[in-house]
Amino acid sequence: MGEVFEADAKEVAGLAVLANDVADKAGEAARFTQDNAAPGGNFGEGLMQTLFSPLEAAADAASSRFDGHTAMCRGIGTELNRAAWMYRDQEQKNYEALNAQIPACLLDEYGSDVAAPGFAEDYPDPARYVAPEDIKLEPPVTDAEDIRTLIADRAGWLGDVDDAIKAVTGWSALEETVKPIGGNWNELKRIGESHKVAGEAMENCGKNLEAGAKQVSDHWAGKAEEAFQDYAHRQVEAMTWEGPVGGVIKRLLEVAADEIKRITLEVVDNLADLLIKEVTIDDVISLLKFAVKKVPFVGTTIQGVVIVDIIMSVKDRVTVLVDSIRGIVDTVSGFLAAVVSPSGQLNELSEATLGPIAKKVDGTKKQAEFARDLASVADADGPLHKPTEPFSVGIGPDPWADAA
Q: pTM here?
């Protein structure tokens, strides 16, 4: 047997206030995503550059989803505020109280049986509904670390040698060598952290709406309340899904960034080891002043100096190293594409495809968090079954109907 209709107008109004607050915070998360999750900075011309377009698409898609969540929550707030006016006098059970609070209402078209559309005035003295979860949106900062900085820390003289070559020839053998792995890998970490911050904010927005829906259930019963609970449940699931998505993106981009940095370090160390065996570093600059000569070869190079030959010999090693982690970068791109258009494909990407990457996540605790988030993302029911139309308590006698 269904529940007999009852409604406390102040409670419904209180939930309306909370829903509008959730919409405000969700809107802030959408703007944060627009401002911070898109790729920028130095992506180089090689491996990192292949992630630029997928990251751009992922940021656009997340921002669009967040805008959608904002609109749905705003619609809930608007409709519940209207419903509070409908329930102000339960003995009448008509639309007259609501219509009196809509400035544009034309009384000859709308009456006790037909509600006027539009926004109603805020219901006075609503019940207090507290959002239990804090929403924090703090933009992460990109550390300015690129190949030149790394060289300076690892083997500063290597950069000095290359600078001397470039000063004479106008061409950098070192830059040519590391081009496939050039770029600021910390930009990937910044983007990942931005997705995590935004995703957690949206997840908390969903939890706040969920708390409000639970609180109102003690003060509202009937067909309209059942419809609201179903609608809210689907909306909450869609919003809380965003938290794990942001967490997975953060970890994937951290792994990609760390792998790019790792092979960059290997290249720098390899170059330093080879060069230090062949030259006396203190005498290199003087040597170059007398031994350089411009000749056509990939732009300009130096003839008769072993240094350039050594640097160029490492290019083959760079190619091997890039190929060794290209699979990780391709997997990241595939996951981002799947999140842009959520479907059953997310299940396929979970353990089999992303499992090996989980082993590269630094730390047992972080690996456990990654596995948990990945399982939540793979369950795409939230985004697939989210509401697509604004919430409504119904028309005619529906708002006051007993539950079925």
A: 0.88
Residues in CB range of 391: below 8 A, 6 or more apart: 72, 75, 76, 79, 80, 227, 228, 231
Query: ∠ at Cα 158 (156, 164), nearest 5°?
Result: 110
d(CA 239, CA 70): 10
- Residue position matching structure tokens 């005619």: 396
Stated length of the chain: 404
Digit-by-digit pLDDT tens for the chain (404 residues) are 578 999 999 999 999 999 999 999 999 999 999 999 999 888 888 899 999 999 999 999 999 999 999 999 999 999 999 999 999 988 889 999 999 898 876 666 788 999 998 899 999 999 999 999 999 999 998 776 666 677 777 667 777 777 766 776 677 767 777 788 888 889 999 999 999 999 999 999 999 999 999 999 999 999 999 999 999 999 999 999 999 999 999 999 999 999 988 888 888 888 777 777 665 555 554 544 434 443 333 334 444 456 667 777 777 888 888 888 888 999 899 899 989 988 767 776 666 677 778 778 877 888 888 889 988 988 888 999 999 999 999 999 999 999 87
Which DSSP category does 88 fall into?
A: S
- Residues 9, 92 contacting (CB under 8 angstroms): no
Q: Is 233 exposed, middle or buried (0-12, 13-18, 19+ CB in 10 A)?
A: middle
Compute the distance between CA of residue 26 and CA of residue 68 in angstroms, rounded to an integer. 9
